[in-house]
Amino acid sequence: MSDGATDATGGTGATGGTGATEVGVPAYPVASFDDPHLLPLAKNPRRAEAVVAVFLVLGILGVAAYGALYWVGGQTQWEGVFLGGGLFCIGFGLSAWGKYLLPQGPFVEQRHPMASPEEDRKAMTSAIVDRGGIVVKRRGFLGGLLGAGMGIFGVVAAFPLIRSLGPVPGKTLDRTNWRAGSRLVDFTGRPVSVHDLEVGGALTVFPEGYLDSEQDQAMDQTMLIRAGSADIVTRPGRETWGPEGYLAFSKVCTHAGCPVGLYEEQTQQLLCPCHQSLFDVLDGAVPVFGPAPRPLPQLPLVVDADGWLRAQSGYDQPVGPGFWERS
Ligand code: FES
In this structure, which residue's CA is closest to atom 1 in ligand 1? Predict the structure, then answer.
């Protein structure tokens, strides 16, 4: 009994024996750049590092050039060249980094029919770890370049969010420039008389005095239709809105804002060419087909003493897609 207990204790002591290596002498063989397991380029890490650095720098310059060109107004083809070239270089640098500067497998150990001695296995483990230490160390420079490349790409990728969405519409769509008494004019500024359109005719009109601004024109554009020769009532409460067969509806589609510019006389419908919404002219321009969710706002018209067409008032609701009127 006493001897057995002594043997067990002695086994623990033997483990301590592996730490009996002399101070300053490696316990296992150290890997070198001549290690046959390393790829040829990995034996020249400085050259590989230089190649990776060059491509990362080229990538940064390419993405930066794309961002600068985009910011000053853009040119589609060169933007594509710079962005594509920049991303290619960053990708190439990353691939080369992984291929030539990181430990590569497979690591082959010639196995013996019997299990290797403990000492050999520890030596192999040490060699792999040490080989990784050779090729992985001192990559702060490349890491910095990679971070810069990713950073500048992130900044450039955010450009569309801060520049390409255009101005916030705010309250500008709540009111147009149509007022009580506004005279209807065509896109040249010529006033529209009650005699200008034949039955079945259509014309895009604007309020007089507001043709200078494209934004104003975008909001104010109105489709004037002569749907008949007598007064037309499209809805209860609109008894005076359609004098002598003239009807006027906002030209801004209530689906996504395209110009509703096609008038079909035979069916008395307005067609939006973007997604084929159809609006029934004689029924207050309610949508009868397509994705438009609500009628086109109607502009009340009146013929003045000189025969000019004028607005009785502005639109009684916001023009354009329905979501713009939500708070
Ligand atoms: S914008 Fe008119 S149907 Fe879509």
Answer: 256
Q: How far, in Å, CA of 161 to CA of 137, rounded?
A: 39
When pLDDT is cut at 50, 70 and 90, the band that residue 310 belongs to is very high
Q: Which domain covers residue 264, as residue numbers? A: 184-325
End-to-end CA separation in angstroms for the chain: 89
Reported as a single tens digit per residue, the pLDDT across 132-178 is 665 555 578 888 888 999 998 888 888 877 777 777 766 766 789 99
Residues with CB under 6 A from ligand 1: 253, 255-256, 258, 272, 274-275, 277, 290-292
Distance CA 153, CA 82 (A): 12
- CATH number of the domain enclosing 318: 2.102.10.10
How is residue 191 annotated by DSSP? B
pTM of the model: 0.55
Domain count, the chain: 2
Q: What is the pLDDT of residues 105-116, one digit of tens each?
A: 666 666 666 677
User: Does residue 159 sit in the same domain as residue 206?
Assistant: no
